[in-house]
Amino acid sequence: MKINPKILFNTLIEGTNPMKTCRLLVLSMLLPSWVYPHGDLIPAHGGLITEGKNITVELVTQPDMTRVYLSEHGTPIDSSAASGELILLSGGKKSQIPLAPAGYNALSGPGVNPEPNAKAVVRVNVPDVGKEQIRFALE
Description:
- By secondary structure, the protein is of the alpha+beta class.
- It contains two helices and nine strands; from the N terminus they run ααβββββββββ.
- The protein has helices at 5-12, 18-34, and strands at 48-51, 56-61, 65-72, 75-76, 83-90, 93-101, 106-110, 119-126, 130-137.
- Strands 1, 2, 3, 4, 5, 6, 7, 8 and 9 form a nine-stranded antiparallel sheet that branches.
- It is elongated, with a radius of gyration of 25 Å.
């Protein structure tokens, strides 16, 4: 049994204009080549990474120092004029830790030793980029 492509095509698009259908088909094949993700969120410093509206934040917590690294779609952001705060909810206690510029794209503060299942909120304000509030679940 041989299938006639014209009959199959007309059956699938019954009542529609074939030229419009062809245009839509060509456009739909091109669309995936236009849509690219901004890249994988791979932490460069061994921390937890989350992407906000304008800023990607990597949080690195250690007993002696806390660091927050800032980038925008993989490009480091100058944090020399930035300010920030880490709010840590751990063991039923709330701690607010100020973050100050430390290096080109980092903010730094005192170390923390969060308990398992702690929650953290990082608030940053970067001139010319904007404000961001990012939530983390620490394991």
